[in-house]
Amino acid sequence: MAKNVKDKPAPEELTFEQALAELDAIVAAMEQGEVSLADALAQYERGVQLVKRCRVLLGEAEKRIELLGEDEKGKPTTTPLDAATGEDEGQ
Q1: Rounded to 5, what percent of the chain is helix, strand, coil?
Q2: Would you say 2 and 29 are in contact if contact means Cβ atoms under 8 Å apart?
Q3: Is 79 helix (H, G, I), strand (E, B) or coil?
């Protein structure tokens, strides 16, 4: 009982949790042999798109992480991860 991937929302519209849940469902169906070869190929392609979406969302989350540190007086401070690593320099 394969579901048509064309009836699904575009990966760009999914949250991380939605993309991951769909990816888990695809893997489970393929492991159980519930899909034809043609459907398996379509599901595989969809899975690749979902993995890319998850990576994009994780990358965005990483950029929002703040590093905890101390200032010269020993008071706790936070620094955005990208500022601490210098990722945005030169852009």
Answers
A1: 60, 10, 30
A2: yes
A3: strand
pLDDT per residue as tens digits for the range 1-52:
345 667 899 999 999 999 999 999 999 999 998 789 999 999 999 999 999 9
Which amino acid type is present at position 12?
Answer: E
Which run of H or of E encompasses 68? strand 66-70
Structure tokens at 65: 């992480």
Contacts of 84 (CB under 8 A, 6+ apart): 67
Please tell me the distance from the alpha carbon of residue 79 to that of residue 70, in angstroms, as a whole number: 10
Q: Supply the pTM of this predicted model.
A: 0.68
Token look-up 């993995």 returns: 51
Please state, in angstroms and as integers, the Cα–Cα distance from residue 71 to each residue in 37, 68, 74, following that order: 59, 10, 5
Nearest residue to 62 (alpha-carbon basis) of 7, 16, 6: 16
CATH architecture of 5-85: Orthogonal Bundle (1.10)
